[in-house]
């Protein structure tokens, strides 16, 4: 057995389905299969075509694989075995190859489940009369084309997720990767939103045909795979290779402590309110990240893009409806992914946080509030920039007063709608800690995860009328119903999650006990 194969098995075993037990793994797999089939059958409605299940399967797998790779490398920095893993007598590139191979194996397991769900959705939709079933030859051809395309995208998604370590390095070369990195994250999501929009007739597009998909797969293999091959040494040297230095750089010193050079300005005194103290502790980490050169570039570029979107989108009624949704959809999705990764990244610090002389509700709520405030700052900046773009269009004579009023109405409605979506989703996610009481209850976390990842599709399905036209006004009563039903439910989830916040430490205790027994 080669060293690389041993490392791959070691990495894969950390999250292998066999660790959960055979019966539990089968139960989780069947539950995920049923949920995906139900979601696939319910959401597309009458606009579904024979290709729809496989298009959304490809988009889902790209997002899941990229997110899994990104969260894995971000969580690796705070794990206790980091120095142990980096001390292996192998090059950083070999260790990185092991991580990539392990993530690819996990991604292939997910691919089998998602593609099986897509085939089931296709079959049930054909039986339900949504569309005519394809001949056997065409169906096999389409299935083979999309399967090859998905397999071609998996290595690119894994390596591109690991490439986030390059963006975390304050180097000039890393600035060049900011725009393409974020575009590859967001383009599939934008495409999914466009497919779900009833204002756009994309169900017959030729660029989603099996022949075109095969050409995309060939292009990815010929261009994307060599790009990943040449990118991996850079990640190994400047990303993974520098992780051993992060802990020593984070330790306090006489010249520059962990909280900054001026200790007086960063000292949390007992005169502060308990919640304010914890909130400032969490936001201090965000402020450090905001000083990164790449983040500063995004702070300057994003408002300008939002102004341009408001300026040009206000000229057409259908355009401003799509712009208003796309503008706020991405920050909400970013906040959801951040909240998902937060529990794994900060798990190591939870014993320290739970040791504070504050209630668990204050500890939990302060961390959630720090993420919520940060995402809301992004949403407010986008909203104000879009408002400014529409007003500039009115001042320059590009639009009249009626179009300005119509554009501001949809922007305000979308701002309030996605603010409610963000708040309710964050609250519901805190039920995770209560659901850890038992394995059966943990299955209820799947609808919450789907709510966060598919919120734009749900909004297009339930909040936006099926027949879109210029001059259509939003239904403000729906916001009231969402607030009346969703906010109390989110509050109950927060209180329940705070009561069982300590259960997230149970896997760590079990792992420590197993290590001692070994």
Write a structural description.
The chain is mostly helical and 518 residues long. Helices cover 75% and strands 0% of the residues. It has helices spanning 3-14, 22-42, 52-76, 82-86, 92-128, 136-162, 164-167, 172-175, 178-196, 210-238, 246-250, 274-290, 293-313, 317-345, 350-354, 360-395, 401-429, 432-435, 439-442, 445-453, 455-462, 476-499, 506-517. The radius of gyration is 24 Å and the shape is globular. Keywords: Membrane, Transmembrane, Transmembrane helix. This is ABC transporter permease.
- What would the principal axes of the Cα set say about the shape? globular
Task: Let me know the number of strands.
Answer: 0
Question: Mean pLDDT across all residues, rounded?
Answer: 76
Order of helices and strands: HHHHHHHHHHHHHHHHHHHHHHH
Compute the gyration radius: what is it? 24 Å
Helix fraction by DSSP (H/I, runs of at least 4) = over 70%
Distance between the termini: 23 Å
Strand fraction: under 5%
- Quaternary form: single chain
The helix tally amounts to 23
Structural class: mainly alpha
Low-pLDDT stretches are: 196-204, 246-272, 508-518
Major sheet summary line: none
């Amino acid at each position: 057995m080669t060293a690389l194969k041993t490392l791959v098995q070691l990495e894969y075993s950390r999250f292998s389905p066999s660790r959960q037990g055979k019966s539990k793994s089968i139960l989780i797999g069947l539950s995920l299969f049923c949920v995906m089939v139900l979601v696939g059958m319910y959401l597309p409605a009458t606009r579904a075509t024979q290709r729809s299940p496989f298009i959304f399967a490809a988009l889902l797998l790209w997002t899941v694989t990229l997110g899994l790779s990104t969260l894995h490398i971000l969580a690796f920095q705070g794990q206790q075995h980091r120095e142990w893993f980096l001390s292996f007598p192998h090059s950083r590139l070999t260790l990185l190859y092991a991580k990539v191979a392990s993530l690819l194996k996990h991604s292939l397991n997910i691919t089998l489940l998602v593609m099986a769900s897509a085939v089931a959705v296709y079959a049930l939709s054909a039986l339900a009369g949504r569309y005519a079933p394809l001949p056997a030859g065409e169906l096999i051809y389409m299935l083979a084309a999309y399967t090859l395309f998905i397999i071609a995208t998996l290595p690119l998604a894994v390596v591109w997720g690991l490439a986030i370590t390059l963006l975390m390095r304050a180097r000039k070369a890393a600035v060049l990767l900011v725009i393409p990195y974020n575009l590859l994250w967001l383009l599939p999501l934008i495409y999914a939103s466009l497919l779900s929009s009833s204002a756009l007739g994309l169900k017959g597009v030729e660029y989603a045909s099996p022949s075109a998909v095969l050409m995309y797969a060939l292009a990815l293999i010929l261009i994307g795979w060599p790009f990943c091959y040449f990118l991996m040494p850079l990640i190994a040297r400047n990303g993974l290779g520098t992780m051993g230095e992060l802990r020593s750089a984070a330790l306090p010193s006489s010249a520059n402590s962990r909280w900054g050079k001026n200790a007086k300005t960063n000292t949390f005194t007992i005169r502060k309110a308990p919640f304010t103290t914890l909130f400032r502790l969490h936001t201090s980490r965000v402020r450090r990240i905001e000083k990164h050169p790449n983040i500063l570039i995004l702070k300057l570029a994003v408002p300008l893009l939002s102004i341009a979107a408001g300026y040009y989108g206000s000229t057409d009624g259908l355009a401003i409806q799509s712009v208003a949704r796309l503008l706020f959809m991405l920050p909400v999705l970013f906040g959801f992914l951040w909240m998902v990764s937060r529990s794994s990244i900060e798990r190591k610090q939870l014993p320290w946080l739970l040791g504070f002389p504050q209630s668990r509700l204050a500890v939990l709520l302060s961390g959630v509030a720090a993420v919520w405030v940060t995402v809301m700052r992004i949403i407010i900046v986008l909203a104000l920039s879009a408002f400014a773009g529409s007003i500039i269009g009115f001042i320059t004579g590009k639009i009249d007063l009626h179009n300005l009023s119509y554009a501001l109405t949809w922007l305000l409605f979308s701002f309030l709608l996605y603010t409610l979506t963000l708040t309710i989703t964050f609250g519901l996610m805190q039920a995770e800690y209560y659901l850890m009481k038992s394995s059966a209850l943990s299955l209820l976390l799947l609808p919450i995860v789907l709510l966060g990842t598919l919120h734009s599709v749900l909004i297009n399905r339930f909040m936006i009328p099926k027949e879109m036209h210029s001059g259509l006004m939003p239904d403000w009563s729906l916001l009231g119903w969402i607030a009346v039903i969703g906010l109390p439910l989110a509050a109950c989830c927060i209180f329940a999650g705070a009561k069982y916040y300590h259960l997230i430490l149970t896997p760590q205790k079990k792992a420590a006990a197993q290590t001692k027994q070994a």
